[in-house]
Amino acid sequence: MLVLGIETSCDETSAGVVDMQGPAVLSNVIASQNAVHEKFGGVVPELASRQHLGAIVPVIRQALKAAGAGLDRISGIAVTAGPGLAGSLLVGLETAKAMAYASGKPWIGVNHLEGHLFAAFLLDPAPEFPYLGLVVSGGHTSLYALDSALEHRLLASTRDDAAGEAYDKVAKICGLGYPGGPALDRAAGAHAGPAVSFPRAAMKDGSLDFSFSGLKTAVLVHVAGQRRAGLEPDMVSVAAGFQEAATEALIAKTMKAAAQEGLTRIVLGGGVAANSRLRSELPRRARERRLEVFIPPLDLCADNGAMIAYAGGLRLARGESSGWELGVDPGWRY
Ligand code: KG4
Ligand code: ZN
């Protein structure tokens, strides 16, 4: 069964084709809008939806072509219905509906977070249920217990900034470039010697929830303090210090959640799962406790159509589909 997946929740226009047998990614085309948003230092929603409008048809055509499959061979269409930017989501959703209407094929609106949590199934070997899922992206930082493809429980989320949001803001404070997350990761990776030490957030109530705004403020205070003292802050060592503290917070909470829930498999997803320190440190720390870690390759961590195709494909295979009344849900919780 071949499924076409469409993703336009933020600033990537993406379409992918997944063969649910295997499963196998037959294509995964991602058109980035970085060049458009760069001069504003962040995603401008109106520009994002306009870019999606221009890119969506060519991206879908390219995804079908690269998969060597015409629309006639596609069994169903999956599309991100939320959460995300309303105008951006609309472009993907209405395109999917139009294609489904014209072709008579079933379609399904998919939760973006379910896409990130299931992307690791496109790995070989794939994880097995149950597992602990960590979604780390620009909009979310959440831990889930996934008991089966049908059952998940939210264990923790962020009380303020998402991890990716904190990366982007700190990269901006440090003047490291756009997009901030990858730029900060590169700067931190190039750093040798001691990094600036920043506090690790601890929840007073012992909760598994995350918090990144205190760390972001600590960076701001450090940089301002240096400048007041007439010193030019060493941004690379600031970046390395932030990266250490942020990834430590993610890893420590993940380890704690795995122990509390008695889960032995950890699955990572979302844009921040591309982070080099997280990719190396989390498996190292997990090995010490005999836990298995599954991290998708980079193009399946960032927003992409293939993960939506797979997550939607599971639902279509169970006989689920969406009706014409389904609209976008920018605040859709998972
Ligand atoms: O999942 P994603 O592509 O979009 C959302 O659903 O939000 O995640 C984007 C986020 C951005 O905040 C970006 O800066 C961050 O992922 N990111 C990274 C890295 N690559 C992307 N953060 C840290 N290190 C990276 N290498
Ligand atoms: Zn995402």
Notable traits:
five-stranded mixed beta sheet, binds zinc ion, 334 residues, alpha/beta, 43% helix, binds 5'-O-[(R)-(carboxyoxy)(hydroxy)phosphoryl]adenosine, 11 helices
Polypeptide structure, described:
The structure is a single chain. 43% of the residues lie in helices and 19% in strands. With 334 residues, it is α/β, with parallel strands linked by helices. A five-stranded mixed sheet has the order 3-2-1-4-5, sandwiched between helices. It has a five-stranded mixed sheet with strand order 8-7-6-9-10. Helix 5 (163-173) packs across helix 6, helix 6 crosses helix 8 (235-261) and helix 8 (235-261) packs parallel to helix 9 (276-288). The mean pLDDT is 97. Residues 10, 137-139, 164-165, 167-168, 179-182, 185, 270-272, 274-275, 302-303 line the site of 5'-O-[(R)-(carboxyoxy)(hydroxy)phosphoryl]adenosine.
